[in-house]
Amino acid sequence: MAKGKFITLEGGEGAGKSTQARLLAAWLGARGIDAVVTREPGGSPLGESIRGLLLSSQNGPIDPLTEALLFNGARRDHVLRLIKPALDAGRWVICDRYADSTRAYQGAGGQLDAAIVERLEHWVTADARPDLTLILDLPEADGLARAAARHAGTESLGGRDRFEAADLAFHLRLRLMFLRIARSEPARCAIVNAEPAVEEVSAAICAVVSERLGL
Ligand SMILES: Nc1ncnc2c1ncn2[C@@H]1O[C@H](COP(=O)(O)OP(=O)(O)OP(=O)(O)O)[C@@H](O)[C@H]1O
Ligand SMILES: [Mg+2]
């Protein structure tokens, strides 16, 4: 059986990754393609447990290397238990965040040495490299406003997780890193303007998937 395609969605807070992952799976489904939607950190029971540790504001500051190790531990489990078996079985996998988020959040955001980020990524993603990465781009303040509107008034930090609570300069570094990744790996990545309405962004994503993956 032919292997499935592996598509990742990347971008800053509130860019629309989770929304667009669901819409893309539905669009593929209508074309007879069985796609599993999953997310990082998470996607497997151990991954989801690590997600709780990483996003919670209860553990205080976490240094970028510790963060990168935890994210990559979750990622390795996710690859072995879900992503690779699904691809091997011919299913497509749509993953809401993947290794580029570590390059952006721990590398650019947390200013962790790029060589460490790269080495960890090399080991951990060897069995599952994305065929296509969609980078959802919009001004960082707009994404944060969308994320804030989604869960205003809940939990501590006004419902924000540890990363949403970081300052704007951090979020600008993320945006610039995602754009840099897209420009440095144009065969794998496509930048999608995430500013328009949900349906318009979805149409742009489906057009890129069609073109790049030959649908
Ligand atoms: N194109 C859009 N225009 C306006 N609002 C949007 C758009 N896309 C998503 N939203 C809304 O913005 C919020 C964030 O969207 P979503 O959860 O899909 O983003 P995300 O990239 O997954 O965010 P996070 O990084 O926090 O996981 C949601 O309330 C969603 O309904
Ligand atoms: Mg999301």
Q: Could you describe the 3D structure shown?
A:
The protein has helices at 17-30, 45-55, 64-88, 99-109, 114-124, 140-150, 168-184, 198-213, and strands spanning 6-11, 35-39, 92-96, 132-137, 189-193. The model has no long low-confidence stretch (mean pLDDT 94). The protein has 215 residues and is α/β, with parallel strands linked by helices. It has one domain (6-213): 3-Layer(aba) Sandwich (Rossmann fold). A five-stranded parallel beta sheet has the order 2-3-1-4-5, sandwiched between helices. Helix content is 54%, strand content 13%. It contains eight helices and five strands, in the order E-H-E-H-H-E-H-H-E-H-H-E-H. It is globular and about 45 Å long. Helix 1 crosses helix 8, helix 2 (45-55) packs antiparallel against helix 3 and helix 4 (99-109) packs antiparallel against helix 5 (114-124). The site of magnesium ion (MG) has 3 residues, from helix 1.
Secondary structure class reads: alpha/beta
CATH homologous superfamily, by name?
A: P-loop containing nucleotide triphosphate hydrolases
Strand order of the largest sheet: 2-3-1-4-5
**Largest sheet at a glance?**
5 strands, parallel
Order of helices and strands: EHEHHEHHEHHEH
Radius of gyration: 16 Å
Give me the CATH fold name.
Rossmann fold
Task: Say which molecules are bound, naming each kind only once.
Answer: adenosine-5'-triphosphate, magnesium ion
| Proportion in helices | 40-55%
Total discrete domains: 1
- How far apart, in Å, are the first and last alpha carbons? 18 Å
At CATH level 2, the architecture is 3-Layer(aba) Sandwich
Report the top-level CATH class: Alpha Beta
Tell the overall outline.
globular
Strand content: 5-15%
Quote the average pLDDT: 94
The total strand number stands at: 5
Number of helices: 8
Low-confidence stretches: none
